[in-house]
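Thread: sanity check for a docking pose with pyridoxal-5'-phosphate

Original post by kr_44:
Hi all, I'm comparing my docking run against an independent structure prediction. Below are the sequence and the ligand SMILES. Could someone generate the full complex and paste the structure tokens? I mainly care about where the ligand ends up relative to the chain.
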Amino acid sequence: MSLENNLASIPRISLAKLPTPLEELPRLTRQLGGPRLLVKRDDLTGLATGGNKARKLEFLMAQALQQKCDCVLTAGGSQSNHCRQTAAAAAKLGLECHLVIGGLRHQAAGNLLLDQLLGAKLHWAEGSEGSDRQAMVVEVAATLRQQGRQLYEIPVGGSNATGAIGYVLAVRELISQLETERIDVDTIVFATSSGGTQAGIVLGARLCGFHGKILAISIDQLPDSLFLAGVCRVANEAAARLGTDIRLQTNDFETNYDYLGDGYGVMGDLEQEAIGLAARTEGMLVGPVYTGRALGALFDQIRKGAWATDKTVLFWHTGDETALHDYAQHLYPLKC
Ligand SMILES: *Cc1c(COP(=O)(O)O)cnc(C)c1O
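Reply from moderator J.T.:
Ran it for you. Here is the predicted complex with pyridoxal-5'-phosphate included:
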């Protein structure tokens, strides 16, 4: 059976504005004196601004509707873009949205403000550990089910095989743009966290015969073989759902762990400089938690000579500039 036939049998609803633009970054390319730089603008997917979760939610929310669910539950940090876009999708589809937010309760700003504007119901898991948040998810899910709700649970980041399929198709979209523009990309760089985007991109690249390198910049995970095995499993489940016999191994997923700074969501000089440079040089906003860190990593690698000037590097913008509004005190006055 062909990929098209299998795709047609997987429920999907339209939530993202696709295809997202593929753009050149000529001024940044000149400024850095390195490889030709391109950007895939998934910050422009729409759904309460934009971001990579919109592509995953097209498949996740379609499954929620197919299962006749009336509410969705997911979890994240207070500046989670996944929570914001899930809240927006739920509002658009008339579903109730419950969000378990980890970390200390604080004033609404950035994504946390938008979650509430979008009508989501917040449940705070104030411990700092991921396990506190997971315990709260279990508790909220049990309560909702006791109340007779038809609940659809979405994992953190929307990172399961269903969500990852959104990024398999995103690669197909990108490859078609590159073919039209006759551009050869040597490396694709993006931020990875819960791993669903990476699973989808690596699988999509294999499916489409993309021969360049795919480099994920970890923004929160330390090297962890269990985590990598999970990403690989998600990719292989998605491959099976798509009816291909491609199977990936953990060493197919190239991840850089050198830019973790002081931890998840902690802005340092790397992020600050990258946010300022992208904004002033190309008029492009990147966020404090994910894309600022990944772009900062890319700039650092370019300055260290990782690519010759005749190479082409594509930064996949995954969209988190809404979180900038919660980082004003770190950004102003700009140090760079
Ligand atoms: C969630 C997110 C990522 C990471 O995607 P995963 O699929 O969770 O690895 C990257 N960038 C932004 C802006 C995100 O919100």
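Residues 51-52, 81-82, 157, 159, 191-198, 287, 290-291, 318-320 surround pyridoxal-5'-phosphate (CB under 6 Å). Hope that helps with the comparison, let us know if your pose agrees.
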